[in-house]
Amino acid sequence: MLLWKSDGCKTCKGRCKGRVKPVLLKIGGSVLTDKGRECTFNMQNIRRIAGEIARASVPIVIVHGAGSFGHPQAKKHHIQQNPDTEGLVKTHRAVLELNTVFVETLQEEGVAAIGVHPLNCLLAKRGIVKQWGVEIIKRLVDFGVTPVIHGDVVVDTIDGISVISGDRILTYLAKTLDVAVIGAGTVVDGVLDKNEKTIPHITPSNFKDVSDYIGGSTGDDVTGGMRGKVLELLKLAESGIESVIFNANLNNMVFNFLSGEAIPATRISGAE
Ligand code: IPE
């Protein structure tokens, strides 16, 4: 059984000028970095995932998290409580470094990847996107480009500066771009129950039953962990946009997800 089905051609790698809905793919910071060691890449995963994305034949918009490039700096400089210019500069520099390495690796694998930096183009209100002209992203995708956007520190109309997570960016893009499906690549096989088994399907009606197992932020994570992610994706499911949480730490999972193959994962949708 297919996990989801693209309405597009299999050969043009997204260059079919806007006729095929893009897949919105989030890769968590813990997949791309070693979360235990500040500013440490997981180059093996970055290279492997870039290769899997290069092999896929759907247009893709990528969003990635910060992992050890961003969370430790945001925490150290109390960005959430008392933001200052030093914290802004250091946190942005860290996420930018991760984005640059990921984008360059994608390019080396043959993907026309371009980094898009929220600090330069997005206005937030209390950590939620308030204003962002995503037409540029739409047109880049139509042109055959794979935009690579990241969690970032951004200008905030109330707080001066705030952290915007990859999941918040995902929510906004899902609502404003017409996407086929959302994929969230994490370091676990989806959302796990109390016996560490994957919960195959979460809907607004069964969320209450599974809610207790889903953990929030741990360690240096400043943006909400798995619980935050599921809550964001459930809101989207209610407006008809489906998503899949899967394990991007394992070989071929990103490629299989992008191909619509059934993989061990949690699907989040509006209906049973
Ligand atoms: C956080 O982004 C951005 C900053 C801390 C600046 P995410 O919240 O999306 O990062 P991960 O995926 O949890 O690492």
UniProtKB/TrEMBL annotation:
Q: Chloroplast among the record's keywords? A: no
Enzyme class of the recorded protein, top EC level = transferase
Which GO molecular function terms does the record list? ATP binding; isopentenyl phosphate kinase activity; kinase activity
Report the domain of life of the source organism. Answer: Archaea
Tell me which residues bind substrate: 66, 71, 166
Which EC number applies? 2.7.4.26
Which positions fall inside the Aspartate/glutamate/uridylate kinase domain?
22-247
What are the boundaries of the signal sequence? none
Annotated site location: Transition state stabilizer:
35
Q: Which UniProt keywords apply?
A: ATP-binding, Isoprene biosynthesis, Kinase, Nucleotide-binding, Transferase
- InterPro entries according to UniProt: AceGlu_kinase-like_sf (IPR036393), Asp/Glu/Uridylate_kinase (IPR001048), Fosfomycin_R_FomA-type (IPR024192)
Q: What are the binding positions for ATP in this chain?
A: 26-30, 67, 225, 229
Q: Which family does it belong to?
A: Belongs to the isopentenyl phosphate kinase family.
Instruction: State whether it acts alone or in a complex, and with which partners, per the record.
Output: Homodimer.
Report what the protein is called: Isopentenyl phosphate kinase
